[in-house]
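Recall that a protein's primary structure is simply its ordered list of amino acids. Everything else, from secondary elements to tertiary packing, is in principle encoded there. The following example makes that idea concrete.
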Amino acid sequence: MSQKYYFPAVPLSLSLSSLSLSSPTEAKISQEEVMNVVLQRAPITTSEMVSIFKARLKSEEAKKNFSHILKRLCKLKKSKGRTSLVLKKSALAGMTISSSKL
């Protein structure tokens, strides 16, 4: 027995970009999230960082936002033939370290 699926009609004037999608994979990436990943997984390469947030980097806007956050918070450091992301001193200056992260 085959199932039949019925989809509601969508007006032609409605575009996909005007739809409000609120799934967790499309949530905006925050500075705090990036900072936490760098602190917890340091040293981390850019490709490892991108793979962590890949599901949320679908749109050009999300990619630009992620790039700006990385440039603001991190710098590249070469060590043992590997280029890793490390937090800039300016990013660390505004942080307070809680005892749970020690």
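The CA atoms of residues 29 and 66 lie 7 Å apart. The first strand starts at residue 74 and ends at 79.
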